[in-house]
Design goal:
Structural class: alpha+beta
Keywords: Disulfide bond, Hydrolase, Protease, Signal
Oligomer: single chain
Helix content: 25-40%
Family: Belongs to the peptidase C1 family.
Distance between the termini: 32 Å
CATH architecture of the largest domain: Alpha-Beta Complex
Radius of gyration: 21 Å
GO molecular function: cysteine-type peptidase activity
Protein name: Senescence-specific cysteine protease SAG12
InterPro entries: Papain-like_cys_pep_sf, Pept_asp_AS, Pept_cys_AS, Pept_his_AS, Peptidase_C1A, Peptidase_C1A_C, Peptidase_C1A_papain-like, Prot_inhib_I29
Number of strands: 10
CATH topology of the largest domain: Cathepsin B, Chain A
Length: 374
């Protein structure tokens, strides 16, 4: 999805970078295999670590056989984590992996449980409008196309963190339901409501999962569609009124009029424009889609994530700010996830911002942003 380079040298450098990451990942897997073969499943120190991990994340298993299997997966993942961290500097990684609530899952299991397939081809009226001209909040394209926010100004604040302003609710957990889109949608509505009123209210993801007819419940969705549904419904109720179940249930239509927060509409952010995304985030949290779920993403613990990942958009998250490492280091997005506080950096990930040669942003973060109007 990235734009093609005008010269051959950037292409060569990009290919070298991809090759470098790919080779680094392969080396980490080989080293992890060597480490795994060096320890048997009755390794007392690894068993002790597994037991401490189980206690920390309140894990239990139905059968002894399942616990043995999960121990083997845990040990294999820990071998990969330690091998990757050992080679991080040489591989150019600017983050660390570590134990999370999901260290007992294979990556295939994790992907199936916590990401969703990329949606089918979008209808023409939902196509992304691309423009580098026009005023802020310009409405572009033919009638019926969604309005687009374009702002290429470099005058945005150097850093923004809506958590510090009290506009972000605690990290939530979607569970084994492909409802990430509902969580990112709710997060941006919660954010703008707090910014406008000073009141932080936890809103209902489950109402979207059950009642939003523009999306597909636990089988996936897109935040801007959900924002459009909220606007057409007249608002959305609270999490307390319509609590989360983690399954797609029949819509409780009696709750559709219990609107705690209403929005006036939505804006799409100009695609493949991290400058426009930064200016939008300077005003409020923004919903985005990314490619997530590879081994390194699953085991991310801290630091500025700089790949590997592509642009197969399979997960909805919320950008709640941005900043830069000390001494002119990497610029990054502050991203709120919906995998619980037991994943990543207390439920968050910092993702590298303004990656050279990637107008789509790391993991496609700048392809499909949107936010509500109030």
């Amino acid at each position: 999805m990235a734009s093609s380079s005008k010269g051959s040298l950037p292409c060569v450098l990009l290919l070298l970078a991809v090759f470098h990451h790919g080779c680094s990942s392969a080396r980490a897997h080989r080293r992890a295999g060597d480490m795994e073969r060096s320890m048997s499943t009755d390794d007392s120190s690894m068993i002790e670590r597994f037991q401490r991990w189980k206690a920390a994340y309140n894990k239990s298993y139905a059968t002894v056989a399942e616990e043995r299997r999960r121990f083997r997966v845990y040990a294999r993942n820990m071998a990969y984590i330690e091998a990757t961290n050992a080679e991080a500097e040489a591989a150019g990684l600017t983050y660390e992996l570590g134990e999370t609530a999901y260290t007992d899952l294979t990556n295939q299991e994790f992907m199936a449980m916590y990401t969703a397939p990329a949606p089918a081809q979008l209808p023409a009226d939902e196509s992304v409008i691309t423009t580098r001209a026009g005023p802020v909040d310009a409405v572009g394209g033919a009638p019926g196309q969604l309005p687009v926010y374009v702002n290429l100004s470099t005058s945005a604040p150097a850093s923004v963190d809506w958590r510090a302003s009290g506009a972000v609710t605690p990290v939530k957990n979607q569970g084994r339901c492909g409802s990430c889109w509902a969580f990112s949608t709710v997060a941006v509505v919660e954010g703008i409501y707090q910014i406008r009123t000073g009141k932080l209210v936890s809103l209902s993801e489950q109402e979207l999962v059950d009642c939003d007819t523009l999306d597909d419940g636990c089988d996936g969705g897109i935040s801007y569609r959900a924002l459009r549904w909220i606007a057409s419904n007249g608002g959305i109720t609270t999490e307390t009124d319509y609590p989360y179940t983690g399954t797609t249930d029949a819509c409780n239509r009696a709750k559709l009029s219990h609107n705690a927060v209403s929005i006036a509409g939505l804006r799409r952010v100009a695609t493949r424009s991290e400058a426009s995304l930064a200016n939008a985030v300077a005003g409020q949290p923004v919903a985005v889609s990314i490619e997530a779920g590879g081994d390194n993403f699953q085991h991310y613990k801290k630091g500025v994530y700089n790949g590997p990942c592509g642009t197969n958009l399979n997960h909805g998250v919320t950008v709640v700010g941005y900043g830069q490492e000390a001494a002119g280091g990497d610029r990054y997005w502050i991203v709120k996830n919906s995998w619980g506080q037991g994943w990543g950096d207390d439920g968050y990930i910092r993702m590298k911002k303004d990656v050279a040669g990637k107008p789509e942003g790391l993991c496609g973060i700048a392809i499909r942003p949107s936010y509500p109007l109030m």
